[in-house]
Predict the structure of Tyrosine-type recombinase/integrase.
Amino acid sequence: MASVTKRGDKWQYRVSYIDKDGKRKYVNKSGFRTKRLAENAGREVEIKYAHGAELDKTNITLMNYWDKWISLYKAGKHTEITERRYKTIRGQLQSYFGIMRELNSISKSDWQEFINYFCAGKDREPVKPRSKDTVSKLNGYVRSMVNNAIDDQIVYSNFTNNVYIPEDEEADKIKYLELDDFKNLIQHTTEFADYSEHFPYYLIATGALTGARYSEILGLTWSDIDFDNKQININKTWDYRFRTGFAKTKNKASVRTIDLSDNLLLLLRRLKKQQAEAYVYQGYRDTKKLVFRNIRHELISNGSINSSLRILEKELDIKQPITFHGLRHTHVSFLIYKGVNINYISRRLGHSNVTITQTVYSHLFKTLEKEQAKATTDALSSL
């Protein structure tokens, strides 16, 4: 039976137990407003002990359990980018909850308050709201951790379940080029791409006409391009952030074949010819046979390609500029408006399933749905 005593104007419980080594130990917790709250909390500890919980672990802090969970289940099993994400999330949790906050003390309301704070970007300077996707990913990682804590009998329920993630229209808005701007971009890059003068145009056109991720494009070797069958084989990426060389694709579904348009095929043939001529002149041999190694034998960074894209958008008088990743969104929006099958689009993007595609581009489908609804009613009215 837990003993309950009063300290000042607060109540505390104390539970004695025998640990796995046969030694008597105690679990104490204070700060309860009423005697009943302390009794109930002490009773919960006794129930956990009766069900086999190791009580010396029940008061583990959020940060200590996060570190333990990462060490056991995550560390060394993913890309360096993902490993960095774990550290970022850890910093965000510690900044809000502190280093001593016990995991079992976090309620659903506590977590919702954190999500509201994190989503609003109040930890940023200046304050800038985060996208729903970013918040959902953090919540998903913590949910997995808490599920393990439930199995370890440290907590009884998962406080991250059914959390409400506020939406910010601007933060969640997917940015893509309007049709006329998209056409101008494709026409300009395919016409003026040149290995020595306008090399970034090759990358920009490839991103726009395939919808591939930047790391996937940089990871292409000439053997990945099937000119006869008009296809590109995505089977690896290039780690442009940490410069470790070739890396795995984002997931299994990202290993895929992308059908190529005629204008992109012509562009890639031109690049191959110009690159080969430059290498002969320079006496250079690329053992990796990378498609997008420039005349200085470099693979340009994500920051550099975005800088080149911004300059080009200014030249073309594009009022709502996008990043290189926005070319992927533009590619998808164009295919959706052209009525291309969603299952094909999903496979082309390398999404794990079509639901991801539908979720990410839901606003585009809603717009298209209105057009389809009118076409449907017009057709029925003509009967």
The chain has 16 helices and eight strands. Residues 62-171 form a domain with the DNA polymerase; domain 1 fold (CATH 1.10.150.130). The chain has a mean pLDDT of 90.
